[in-house]
Amino acid sequence: xxxxxxxxxxxxxxxxxxxxxxxxxxxxxxxxxxxxxxxxxxxxxxxxxxxxxxxxxxxxxxxxxxxxxxxxxxxxxxxxxxxxxxxxxxxxxxxxxxxxxxxxxxxxxxxxxxxxxxxxxxxxxxxxxxxxxxxxxxxxxxxxxxxxxxxxxxxxxxxxxxxxxxxxxxxxxxxxxxxxxxxxxxxxxxxxxxxxxxxxxxxxxxxxxxxxxxxxxxxxxxxxx
Length: 225
What we know:
The chain is an alpha/beta fold and 225 residues long. The chain is built from eight helices and seven strands. It has helices at 15-28, 47-53, 66-90, 101-108, 117-131, 147-158, 172-189, 205-224, and strands spanning 4-9, 33-37, 94-98, 139-144, 192-195, 197-198, 201-202. β6 (197-198) and β7 (201-202) form a beta hairpin. The longest helix is centred in the middle third of the chain and has 25 residues, at 66-90.
């Protein structure tokens, strides 16, 4: 049984922190793990992504076609998989991904009309999993945070340095569209949505972490039956 677990969510939803906590907890349970993160900004394979997010191809999110932008991220994943974690994956360790193909769905599909979403999903799945032969996720956990809360968390992260935000993070209306595309994908593709906020605030980090581990262990049990 392959064990590629993806944590997905809007910017500011705490994916990186939760990926670290999940790895720690699985390690404590005696499991072999490997944590990966996308984009892989430590490698040259992410250069086109950096240019895109810095607005070098246009300051509007729609300046770059979702199909073209998706290609930037796919190539970065291809390099990461083949150079860093392919062997570990084939040994069936738990691979914990902070973002994956799912981010192309959330952020790039949002640029399209709703009527074009299914065509995009079909193209993306064929492109990444058939053409590039990247592994498919076994479990996707979407950390659902209201875009308004996400914006507040980003403000807390960057302070008044608005120029530090990337092309996606600067656009609130776009983040709302991203959440809409995420909810559609979750229902169509079977992602597990974890509500990470209530009463206008994000839940405690420990509460979200416990919910993630509960769902992972439930999935492992069901997969083994």
